[in-house]
Amino acid sequence: MLQLHFQNELTEAGCDEAGRGCLAGPVFAAAVILPHRFAHPVLNDSKQLSAAQREEVRKYIEENAVAWRVARVDHEEIDRINILNASFKAMHLALDGLPVTPRLLLIDGNRFLSYKNIPHHCMVKGDARFSSIAAASVLAKTYRDAFMTQLHVLYPQYDWLHNKGYGTKGHRRAILQYGLSPYHRRSFQCFPAQLEIWEKEI
């Protein structure tokens, strides 16, 4: 069971990102403030939901949250500042866009760069523990999936419609065959150091 709040005195925002481990595309992040009475029967860590469930929950969150915002940092910025800093920046941008200023942040994961001196708690597997983080994970995931689906139309050879930029075997085979697209992250090891071994693996 997800906990609705970490505490009951301060306005909380849950934050999570999507796409940190991908070989291509932006990293997305969301920040969500939920009301004191908020429930949805299937709300959970976005990775535990089907695509249809995520879309259902996304709509519900957008209609019922006190405030929410989604932001992204593109692949070129990821290459410039590294993926960890890009994830923090995406979360900060999402928080910047909230029409309500939270007084406590709940962050999925074990690291975060402080935001405007607002206290924060890092929660390992927080998207499976707190509703606001789970809601943020759903928004970040659905918005990123939609973005990668649009890119798939431009670069169908990488099958981003299905792998969303993650390093699946099919995606890696396409990289070997077609090379890198303009949306691949050059700072990531898209090509292995030992190409012959990698080819045998896939």
Structure description:
The protein is of the alpha/beta class. The protein folds into two domains: 12-141, 2-Layer Sandwich (Nucleotidyltransferase, domain 5); 154-201, no CATH class. It has seven helices and five strands. It has a five-stranded mixed sheet with strand order 3-2-1-4-5, with helices on both faces. Helix 1 (51-64) crosses helix 4 and helix 2 packs across helix 3 (83-96). The termini are far apart. The model has no long low-confidence stretch (mean pLDDT 93).
Descriptive tags:
202 residues; Nucleotidyltransferase, domain 5; five-stranded mixed sheet; 5 strands
Layout of strands and helices, then pairs:
Blueprint lengths: L11 E7 L8 E7 L17 H14 L2 E7 L1 H7 L1 H14 L7 E5 L11 E4 L7 H24 L5 H4 L5 H10 L16 H7 L1
Parallel strand pairs: 1-4, 4-5
Antiparallel strand pairs: 1-2, 2-3
Number of domains: 2
Characterize the main sheet: 5 strands, mixed
Radius of gyration: 18 Å
The CATH class of the largest domain: Alpha Beta
How many DSSP-defined strands?
Answer: 5
CATH topology category name of the largest domain: Nucleotidyltransferase, domain 5
The CATH homologous superfamily of the largest domain is termed Ribonuclease H-like superfamily/Ribonuclease H
Number of helices: 7
SSE series? EEHEHHEEHHHH
Please give the alpha-carbon distance between the first and last residues: 39 Å
- The portion of residues assigned to helices is 25-40%
**Arithmetic mean of pLDDT:** 93
Structural class: alpha/beta
Spans of at least 5 consecutive residues with low confidence: none
Overall 3D shape: globular
Which percent range describes the beta-strand content?
A: 5-15%
The CATH architecture classification of the largest domain is 2-Layer Sandwich
Strand line-up across the major sheet: 3-2-1-4-5
